[in-house]
Structure formats: C-alpha cells, structure tokens
Amino acid sequence: MRTLARRGSLGLCALALVACGGEPDAGPDGGDPDAAVDVDAPLPDAPPPDAPPPDAAVPPLPGFGAISGQCGVIDAAVLAADQAVWFQGELTFATRYVDPDDRAALTPGGLEVLLDDNAGGSSRYSEVFAFEWLARCELAALLKTETEIVYDVAGKKADLLVELGGARVGVSVTRAVTFPFGSPYTPAAATTLLQGKLDDLALATTQVTAADAWSEQLLATLAYDAQHAQVLMDAWAALDPATRRETLLVVAVTSGDDLFIYTDQ
Which of 233, 240, 235, 247 is nearest to 188 (CA)? Predict the structure, then answer.
C-alpha cells in the first residue's frame, strides 16, 4: 500500500436560494394568530450568501475512494482552452476495489462502464475510476460507453462520451505508470504515451457518427504517484500545439491500495 502527502483543496461556492412564506394569519409558530411575539428574540441565522441550495450536489461526491484536492473547476472556458489541468488532487483507496462486492459504492455511470464490455485490453478499472473522478469531482454525466459510441469508419475509439461543463466531451482514458512499480517515470515514456493517445483520439473525433459527435476532447489520466503526474504535465507542456489539438488533459494521482487500477485485477 502506498501513501502520498495530501494537497490543499479548493472550495466551490454556489448561490443559496431561500424561500420564505406562511399563512398570513398564523402565529409565530404556526399556531394561535393572537399569540405574543417576542420582538427581542434573536433571529435565526441566515445561510451565508455563497452556501449551496440544500439539495445541491457539491463535489467531491461520496463514493469508493476518497477524493481530495480541487474539484468543480472544469467549465466551458477550461474545456475550450488548449491547456492541461492537474487538479492537485488525489484519489485514495483505503482498500482495494473488490468486484462485485463494492459495486454499490460506484456512481450509476461508473457501474455502467464496469458492466459494459470495453473494446479489449486491460483497462476496465482505469476507465471506471477515471469516470468516477469526472463524475464525483466535476459532475460529469455518462452519455455512452466505449462500445455504445457509433462510428462511420471502423478504427480508433474514444473510451467514454460524457456531458461535462455543458458540452459533449469525447474522453480517452490512460494510465501514467512505470513497470516495475515504483520506477521513475521518464519524459520519453510520457511523450510517447501522450502522442499515441492524442493521435488515436483525433482519429476517433473525425470518424464518429454525427449523432454521437462531441465538441470537446479530454484525455483523462490516472497517475501512479506525484512524480508520474509531474513528468506527464511537463511532457504535455513540451508538445507542439498541433499535437495537442486543443485537447484537455486531466491528471489525477492515485494512492493507497490502488494497484488494481494498474493491473486490472
């Protein structure tokens, strides 16, 4: 089991809407309209102006694995920008995910990703928890899984189609990891990973059918540790802008009992 130092969180504020009302002839507690009113009694505390509505979903949402760090920061402007975002966030697993015992802790979208067959390979859990991060941290909604997305030309595929920040986003999922585990991540390995994933996602974007087309592209990466995440971000910054193709890179560091992410077991 691995443990990493925590990083600071970024709060998210929303506007609170408070409704007031009552019967015009009711007393102070809804009883006798002639009851005396204590004008010197303290008024109840009003919610702060930046408090969320009582039923609002404020990230990070609960689920399997603890999310710490920045959430609620992807909006239309971030999606449209040619940049990478490392949320200074961490997805920490106190225990290893065990399927099917822990399915109840997944979001409905995460469970659908788990149950739907992917297009092969050993990336089922990384796709599930990349979506869990986007859903719990950024309130993304799953539109289609990998095998549900329709293409006009058989070829490269996106892993997920989600609604995020008001846009339809095609998502490719990858992992920044070195074998044997714990070995330093190199800039060359990070660059090779990014270039391959970006090329594949670009092809999928041009070949997807109109009904499933997305307006934005996102590369969601789960990083083995902070060193892997930093090297990946540095490699991203060094890429030619034409290679990045206005794709948003999101990097989340995993820690704790997280090897199932990288072994798919």
Answer: 235
C-beta separation of 254 from 222 below 8 A: yes
Burial class (CB in 10 A: 0-12, 13-18, 19+), 4: middle
Rounded Cα distance between 191 and 235, Å, is 6
Tokens encoding 88: 């200074």
Q: How far is CA 158 from the centre of its chain?
A: 16
Residues in CB range of 57: below 8 A, 6 or more apart: 139
Neighbours of 103 (CB within 10 A): 14
CA distance 157 to 1: 33
Q: Where are the domains of the chain?
A: 66-263
**CB-based burial of residue 179 (10 Å sphere; 0-12 exposed, 13-18 middle, 19+ buried)?**
exposed
Is this model's pTM higher than 0.85 or not? no
Q: What are the pLDDT digits (tens) for 197-234? A: 999 999 999 999 999 999 999 999 999 999 999 999 99
Q: How does the average pLDDT of the chain come out, rounded?
A: 83
CB 91 within 8 A of CB 67: yes
pLDDT in tens, 251-264: 999 999 999 999 99
| Nearest-angstrom CA–CA distance, 213 and 198 | 17
- Residue 154 main-chain phi, psi, to 5 deg: -70, 130
- State how far the alpha carbon of 84 is from the alpha carbons of 125, 136, 224, 235, 244, in Å: 23, 19, 18, 11, 10
Torsion of CA 17, 109, 219, 190, to 10 degrees: 120
